[in-house]
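Why do we bother with holo predictions? Because pocket geometry can differ from the apo form. Keep that in mind while you read this record for zinc ion.
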Amino acid sequence: MLLRYTSLVVLSVSVCLQAETLGVYLDKPLSGPAQASFRNELHNLLKDTGVSIELRSLKERKAGESFDRLMVVQLRGACDAMESPLAVKAGPLASTQVDGGRILPYAEIFCDRLRQTLGTAFDREPPYRRNMLAGRAMARLLAHEIYHFLAQEKSHSAGGVAKNCVGSRELLSEDFAFDHPTLARLRTVPEPAAAVAETEEAAGR
Ligand SMILES: [Zn+2]
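The structure, written out:
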């Protein structure tokens, strides 16, 4: 009996997002556990936007490193120790520089204010969890500033990471992300521009 074989070749193609890299340069190192949760949370928050975060140390910047966009982040205060600050001036938890209509790729995270905001709920956590929680909270603040920068947008969303104020509940929550309209906005970010004044975010409680 003659067997006939039929080969079936299926050619398919899928739509894929145009992955864009954002190099994020930190001016100070974080501890291992804090850095790991910081990196993971940034990745999780931005993974549905087509933006891939590449975390780097500003001091260890290598010649020839290149990304589609760059952002420099200054960590103010005791970002690694996350000990209870003695006295903290009122102000933002994080901010991004603005010049005229342009939002610049220079952000700051104010760790003493963050630590104060996290408050007693943070203190009650065991030490090994505090590093993870602190790194994750810092990533959420930075993701907020990344939204301003990538979208070149000064206004805020109604909910999620891009809203105008956050408190310990959101920063310590197991589930806090961008809302859907913000994610949709970030999927179609405009070309960046250049320019210098300072805008600050409302500090949350
Ligand atoms: Zn903001």
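The two ends are 81 Å apart (CA to CA).
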